[in-house]
Amino acid sequence: MIGAPKIRQNGITIGPVQGLIDIQSTIQKVIKGGATAILLHKGLFRILTDPPNCGMILHLSASTSLSDTPNWKVIVGSIEESVRLGVDAISIHINLGSEHEAQMLEYFGNISDACDRFQIPLICMIYPRGKNIKDPYDPIVVTHAARVAMELGADIIKTNYTGSYESFKPVVEGCSPVPLIIAGGPKTATDRDFLVTVSDAMRAGAIGVAAGRNVFQHENPTGIVTAIAKIIKENLTIEEALKFITSTK
Questions:
Q1: Region of poorest pLDDT, from 11-20, 32-41, 193-202
Q2: What is the rounded distance in angstroms from the CA atom of residue 10 to the CA atom of residue 41?
Q3: What is the CATH number of the domain that holds 53?
Q4: Which of 135, 198, 211, 236 has CA atoms 20 to 30 A from the CA of 186?
Q5: Which domain does 16 fall in, by range?
């Protein structure tokens, strides 16, 4: 997973939107493009007809956009399930600044301890998100979030990109030596916009990207993942990487 894209699919939160309906086809397309891992909920791992030729990460947190408390992520799986499914790592989602922050931090601590006992890598998706957060991309609060994940035992941290190389570098430094990947964020207006984010984050010290809608809702998921991988793995320029979107199917 280090130095390459990880693809996240989450129909629990937003439903079976474009790109998530035929999930098995989407998975094959992103793997072909060079994704090093896919992150799914347990039910999807159980119905995959072809085991993916990449890393498998089980997501243990959930909430839906239909809820009146969508920022309250609860645990919907267990470490024991990850062992039975044979996945390579697990992930959880924490929202700091939410009115339910305390409950989420409590389960973070418990899951972190269990991962340590079973020797399973833990990825923490941690965001400043809730009624107490004015700007979820504020470098100060993003840095704080990443530090919380580091101190509570995450092996890899995923959080918001703050918008520039200069503002994101302190986020990476603040949770060092634990590696950090960036969230793919909302669907961008252009491929170039997204690849600029990826390139600048890598320059600041991130090791990869966990992309969602910018990949699975792309007209060419294989092409965009190839472009991402070329930037991360081979240090290609944005102009060079963009060519792979149209040349790769």
A1: 11-20
A2: 8
A3: 3.20.20.70
A4: 236
A5: 6-247
